[in-house]
Write a structure and sequence with these properties.
Alpha-Beta Plaits, 429 residues, TIM Barrel, alpha/beta, single chain, 2 domains, seven-stranded mixed β-sheet
Length: 429
């Protein structure tokens, strides 16, 4: 257990815009355990998305109004033993006091995201903002009060790579001091030249026949010291260092190369796009070049974008997706259901596939709400002429229920885990 506690302070310095504590005061609030104060339960860093754009487009006065509104909303979701501070232009730090486990802390994070996402009035305009949250639990290795906030910041960087309106709990490697993180960053840069990166493929099945109908390309890093690392373990570093676009381009080329080697009748290849790629026209050029170089039928290629990424800027997303669609590829909305999209939103997007998020599939058959939601999603997809895929299938009863509901496509560890290219090839024989 950490040796720090939350000290309730009355004379701390304040942020002039929101009236909250400032960064120094929140650090001082994490005082050594001395019989006073409340034991620290968790630390969260909340980052407001697109805030600089609001300042530029609507003026700094409007930006200040949004900050004050967000501050009040965040405060309203906290208890008397919790503290909140503004620690950057668009960042807030929150420390939860008392007996708090990771389940409670993530529930708080979910409430905070919902609070920020609710529409707010700005004069005659209705403004929609989103946030990302990094969350860290106290650990015995925390030597100074800033350690837990640093780990929360590392988790925040990682969750921003997956799009807005998400939270992430700090991972064990986030304990590493900044010097160690710099070593990992340098190693990732060298990983391209040293051929340490590889792509694994998770099959997608026709649930009725058991036939493999698609393969999702997932990057892995064969680290010389840490062994095989999944994308979530290093994608935040790739985002921080500007390597995420290079990584995405490499995965696309590698996946298309494998798809060609599997033959013209092989399954669809699905490749994920990062939030960074979706906001940059370079991805259109990269895709055009990759399709030409590999001489592959574009209809066999499906690009996946998370729902939250699309809703970040719906107009720009629709325009970008149409430019990609014009190249002949198929488009999928990944993690469907987590971004609160509507029928109107979907009708504006030139997509072909809806992939229902695992969090909803987990509850079908046992949770009436999740069962109803999944049923509605399947019907929605059918009404729009879209292919519907269930993600994260872990049990046979889920397969049976999905077929009953009318969903015939799915993937998940119960069916098959991600595997190297050669192992996937053997499934096609």
């Amino acid at each position: 257990m950490t040796k720090f506690s939350v000290s309730i302070q009355t004379s701390a310095s304040r942020d002039p815009v929101t009236g909250l504590l400032d960064r120094q005061s929140i650090l001082e609030a994490l005082t050594p355990e001395n019989g006073q104060g409340v034991r620290l339960g968790a630390a969260l860093i909340v980052d407001i998305n697109r805030f600089s754009s609001v300042n530029h487009q609507m003026g700094y006065s409007s930006g200040d109004t949004i900050l004050r509104t967000v501050a009040l909303r965040l405060q309203s979701r906290l208890r008397g033993t919790d503290q909140i501070a503004r620690i950057g232009s668009d960042e807030f730090a929150i420390v939860l006091g008392g007996q708090v486990d990771v389940h409670v802390a993530t529930e708080v994070a979910g409430r905070l995201l919902a609070a920020v996402a609710a529409p707010m009035r700005l004069g005659d305009d209705e403004v929609f903002m989103t946030a990302n949250i990094g969350l860290a639990m106290p650990e015995a290795t925390d030597k100074v009060p800033d350690d837990i906030l640093r780990r929360a910041a590392a988790a925040l960087s990682r969750t921003k790579a997956g799009g807005p309106n998400r939270y992430q709990v700090a991972l064990p490697e986030d304990r590493a001091p900044s010097g160690e993180r710099l070593k990992i960053e340098a190693a990732l840069r060298r990983a391209f030249e040293h051929r340490e990166l590889e792509v694994h493929y998770q099959p997608e099945f026709d649930l009725d026949t058991g036939k493999v109908v698609a393969a999702e390309a997932l990057v892995r890093w064969q680290h010389p010291d840490h062994g095989l690392m999944s994308a979530w373990q290093f994608i935040g570093i790739a985002e921080d260092t500007g390597l995420v676009d290079r990584l995405g381009t490499w995965v696309l080329g590698e996946a298309l190369d494998q798809a060609v080697s599997w033959g013209p009748d092989a399954p669809t290849i699905r490749v994920n796009l990062s939030a960074s790629q979706l906001s940059d026209d370079t991805v259109v050029i990269d895709l055009r070049n990759a399709l030409a170089h590999h001489s592959i039928d574009p209809a066999r290629v499906c690009l996946e974008v998370t729902e939250s990424q699309l809703l970040h800027d719906l107009d720009e997303s629709a325009s970008m997706l149409q430019r990609l669609k014009n190249l002949g590829v198929r488009l999928a909305v990944d993690d469907f259901g987590t971004g609160f999209s509507s029928l109107t939103h979907l009708q504006r997007l030139p997509v072909d596939v809806l992939k229902i998020d695992k969090s909803f599939i987990d509850g079908i058959g046992s949770d009436a709400g999740d069962t109803a939601i999944v049923t509605s999603m399947i019907k929605l997809g059918a009404s729009l002429g879209l292919e519907v895929v269930a993600e994260g299938i872990e049990r046979q009863d889920q397969v049976d229920l999905l077929l009953t509901m009318g969903c015939t496509r799915g993937q998940g560890f119960y069916l098959a885990k991600p595997m190297p290219a050669e192992a996937f090839r053997s499934m096609l024989v």
